[in-house]
Amino acid sequence: MKEVIYTDQAPAPIGPYSQAIKVNGFLFVSGQVAIDVAASGDIQAETRKVMENIGAILQAAGLDYSNIVKASIFVKDLNNFGAINEVYGSFFTSESGAPHHPARETVEVARLPRDVNVEISVIAVAV
């Protein structure tokens, strides 16, 4: 059975898609952006907001960052790779302090919705 996940703690979809879909123990989170923060030009603040949006959706599904098994990062300027990694990586520390990083790819793209600088989508699994 498929369940649509929605929270008002993350941006509402700007098109015909859901924030996330939960099916067979998997959660597929649509690409998240930080519309309000993007205009500031601070890639770390933008990345942090994107990850907080993802966290809100995970929470609405009864999951957290430790449930993420796969992430896709789309970025307008790959020169921001290090700054994005610094923030992104800070969201994946276990209670013991050891990192638990999901599988991932990072792709530079020509343009993103609403002219943001970074978009991240994830797949999580209830274990």
UniProtKB/TrEMBL annotation:
Belongs to the RutC family. This is RidA family protein. InterPro entries: RidA, RutC-like_sf, YjgF/YER057c/UK114. SUPFAM superfamilies: YjgF-like.
